[in-house]
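Meet our chain:
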Amino acid sequence: MINQQNLYKEHKPSFTKRVYRRSLLSFMSSKAYSWPMLHVIPYIRFSFYYTSLPGWKYRRGYQLLQPGDMVVTNDKWKLTSMLIPGEFSHGALCLSKDATDKFEIAEMTHENLVESTFYDLCAQATRVAIIRCNDWDEDYVNSVIIPNCIYFRNIGIKYDTIFLLGVKALYCSELPIACDKEKRLKVSYEDLAGLGRPYISPTGLFRASNITIVWDSNNEIKP
């Protein structure tokens, strides 16, 4: 069990902030929040044009991708990206790398745990980054990370709309942490959304203290 007190510390919030947080958490537990989160908001994008990640960037990223890597993405035109604070709005986990494999990437979405590919992520993003935990060696990835992710897929793990730490339900950036049983990844639990409790944002994955940024599409220069 994660000791949340060791993950997140802040000064005693003001009365106004406490009221705001209680109201926010109460609303997040209601159907008025969960239904649009699952059935409306994921489909809203404020552009009729394609995402801006070109194929040559995709190919460069794919060349560097390895099983066990985490992928964080953002689409600046999506409503979800505008609602989620930080540089990235979505996170996923690479399980394999095979051009013929339909299950390269595991991601938690409004459709629960989805089997997808690196291409699927890039096709829905304006920015993509590949990050690698320095303390996940190949043996740990193959014997712990990937089997745990497959287990969550097999039990039909549900998407967590209230972003609460734990494995009863998972949100996108929580999936890699849930698979990391030894808690080797030193992720940032910074409360970017002001919930008053720790959670793992996609930007929190990107800001982990023991990761290497393998590739960032924003840093690519057109040939």
Q: What stands out?
A: The chain has one domain: 45-219. The two ends are 48 Å apart (CA to CA). The first strand starts at residue 70 and ends at 74.
